[in-house]
Amino acid sequence: MLGGCSAEEYDTATPTALLDSIQKAVRDGRPEDLPQFIEIAARDIEFDDGVTEASAIGNVKVKLSDMLFQLGRVSRKLKERFAKDLTKTQTEAERISDRFGFGPMVEKAVTDPFRVLDESRDKLTAEDLGDGTAVLLYEDLPFAGGFVALTETGDGWRVTVPIELVQSNEYWPQTRHEWAVLASLLLGVENSLSMFESELDAENFKTLDQATERVGRLLGESVVVQSVIYASMKGKSDAAAPAAKP
Hints:
By secondary structure, this protein is of the alpha+beta class.
């Protein structure tokens, strides 16, 4: 079963209902549903291979859903396997960090990656502007400086970013191949998590520190490789306009 396939229905009829549904997906253990709450405006263009930008973005969201599904599986297994380790209080000197020095950060990211979405709900509110958009507020202040907002679509309200800002960013995908690399990056992360899950099932780790060190290395190597490819591709595309047909 693909992680991106969901039969769950959520209420997103209002900005507040959207925020409640995001929290519900996390509490119900369905992180794979989170990408459906994201709206990324696509340009009305078709790339040389016939793929539209909307389709390319949709593929990235499917890969994100699959990756989050796998991350959720790994997180649950880690918490079950190392429940005692997670309740221990360790000093930084006692904690075994991986060779990159990311031990504590990796541990939090893989054992409770969606906790912040649940805990932040009480501090998040939405101010409907009446024009199909809403301001997302965190403790009554614009979330992320107003960079993240809410927008009304034909399928309900969604989380979005100002497309006019991200399109001008040098790292924002502009070509079919750049969107494909992003999808590959997410697939690489999913595969690394799947590899780690197999090792976890084989009981290759005696402690949580050993497990988080291993998954940190696997994820780090995957992300670095894909990031280098993407950066190289962006460097080449700067010299030419994206190949697309309006």
